[in-house]
UniProtKB/TrEMBL annotation:
Annotated protein name in UniProt: Biopterin transport-related protein BT1
Family named by the database record: Belongs to the major facilitator superfamily. Folate-biopterin transporter (TC 2.A.71) family.
InterPro entries tied to this protein: BT1, FBT, MFS_trans_sf
Keyword Membrane among record annotations: yes
């Protein structure tokens, strides 16, 4: 989707990520999440805000975890539940990893201001750096293959989660100390994206194993737990992301953020996984046998992906994500032209983090039984229309209605983020339900990588349009036209809605069908 609706895991936060926030965790957040992821949902007026993968990655529900959402499950169960999901140690590990992706948003504004003010990049360059740093989210199948096929220290899940956390801590430490150019900054952000993307693949494989064969409603509850956790992390870090930049500077924020990925390393012990005996590990990694196993894995992946019931929905998701965005240009406008401070943008981020949680709740309680085609159709049309409201802010028309720039930005971001998150949740549910048994990590990673590739494509196309329309760090004359073009482009994939499965909320994988 275009800049009107930004949701999903940030490439640094949770799959754009895809959505493409300038941070290490989507969610797209992500920015969400992405992968978003993609990646979390990012504040609307921030560099590299994501659509949904990604990452970005980054994502969030109708309220924080209350006693209604988190309660003792049915009699006989030893665990409490959240969003209808048992909080077993495995599920807690997944939730905490997603929480880390959200809380990494602490440095999101710091990265945005660092690229703009310290490195003096223009909007188009900033979008390119964001797209480059999202590259690790495009090869997630490789991480899935490594995790599934190569046990490290006897574990397929625990060991990779542990090392991913260490890698993330290293990347933020570099940002806090030695990074001083756009190339070193892009490389460090790339390293952080790799950390989050790899851990994301590991926990996603655990989610997919639980979602396989379940109804759309149950799968939606699992995704709601994941993204609700990411949203909660975003809320925890939201306000301080701006006030810390104002008070202590970007380097301090990077240094504090370096400690957060270590939570991913710590929760690896919660994963319920049996250690593979050394003898079996030797057999798995032995010469010709390992090579033949790898070839068979690739053949299975290709056989699965080329099936129409997987390929056609994936094609739609790519095109849906690949429409251009104007987020980088908007960030420069609201900071250079309107004078929004980091502290105020931190408040906006707090509002959008809560709004993302509302979006998860909206989907979990009201939309997860609705057919996917209808959700995509309605949310895309409404999102495109609401995205046009940015024109009011750019032209100053909001002030003629007696609405200040600050209040308009907060209200506009809140509404758009709720809709954006609700529209991205079906992407995750659909991807999880398309995965056949036996290769969950690899195929789910492949599907989300394709989604993230669409997000990166949209980011780069948006950067190209920003340069074509002559929008720079000081010139915003054509910004309204850029916004209109980006939002109208989000409607282009709608004629291809027939590529999505025709199903009702209660059907499972075997009952999905295509036109």
């Amino acid at each position: 989707m275009a800049s009107g609706v930004s949701a999903g895991r940030d490439p640094y936060d949770e799959e754009a990520a895809a959505r493409r926030p300038l941070e290490f965790d989507g969610r797209d957040a992500a920015s969400s999440s992405s992968d978003h992821r993609p990646g979390n949902v990012m504040p609307r007026y921030q560099v590299g805000s994501t659509k949904g993968d990604t990452s970005s990655r980054y994502a969030e529900g109708s309220r924080s975890l209350s006693t209604d959402d988190m309660r003792k499950s049915k009699p006989g169960s030893r665990y409490y539940t959240a969003f209808g999901v048992d909080l077993s140690p495995d599920n807690m590990a997944v939730a905490i990893v997603y929480f880390v992706q959200g809380v990494l948003g602490l440095a999101r504004l710091a990265v945005s201001f660092y690229l703009k003010d310290n490195l003096h990049l223009d909007p188009a360059e900033t979008a390119v750096v964001s797209g480059f740093s999202s590259l690790p989210w495009l090869i997630k199948p490789l991480y899935g293959f490594i995790s599934d096929s190569i046990p490290l220290f006897g574990y397929r899940r625990r060991s990779y989660l542990f090392l991913s956390g260490l890698l993330g801590a290293l990347s933020w430490s570099l940002m806090a100390t030695v990074v001083s150019s756009k190339y070193s900054a892009a490389s460090s952000i790339l390293l952080g994206s790799l950390s989050v993307a790899f851990s994301d693949v590991v926990v996603d494989s655990m989610v997919v194993e639980r979602a396989r064969g379940e109804s759309q409603s149950t799968s939606g509850s699992l995704q709601s737990l994941c993204w609700g956790s990411s949203a909660f992390g975003g809320i925890v870090s939201a306000y301080f992301s701006g006030s810390f930049v104002d008070t202590y500077g970007v380097r301090f924020v990077f240094g504090v953020t370096a400690f957060l990925p270590l939570m991913t390393s710590a929760v690896a012990v919660l994963v319920n996984e049996h250690r593979i005996p050394p003898g079996e590990r030797t057999i798995l990694l032995s010469g010709s046998g390992y090579l033949e196993s790898s070839k068979q894995h690739v053949r299975q992946l290709w056989t699965s992906v080329k099936q129409p019931n997987i390929f056609l929905p994936t094609l739609f998701i790519f095109l849906w994500q690949a429409t251009p965005q104007s987020d980088s240009a908007m960030f420069f406008f609201i900071t250079n032209k309107l004078g929004f401070t980091p502290e105020f943008l931190g408040r906006v981020k707090l509002v959008t983090s809560i709004a993302s949680l509302l979006g998860v709740g909206l989907y979990n309680y009201f939309l997860k039984e609705i057919p996917l085609r209808k959700i995509f159709l309605v949310t895309t049309i409404i999102g495109s229309a609401l995205g046009m409201t940015q024109v009011l802010l750019v032209t100053g028309l909001n002030r003629q209605f007696g609405i200040s720039d600050e209040w308009f930005s907060i209200g506009d971001s809140l509404i758009i983020t709720v809709l954006g998150q609700a529209s991205f949740m079906p992407v995750l549910v659909l991807a999880a339900k398309l995965c056949p048994p036996g290769m969950e990590a690899t195929l789910f990673a492949t599907l989300m990588s394709i989604s993230n590739a669409g997000s990166v494509t949209g980011s780069l196309v948006g950067a190209g349009l920003t340069r074509v329309f002559g929008v720079t760090r000081d010139s915003f004359g054509n910004l309204p036209l850029l916004i209109v073009v980006c939002n109208l482009s989000s409607l282009l994939p709608l004629p291809l809605l027939g590529l999505l499965p025709e199903e009702s909320g209660g059907t499972d994988n075997g009952e999905m069908k295509h036109n």
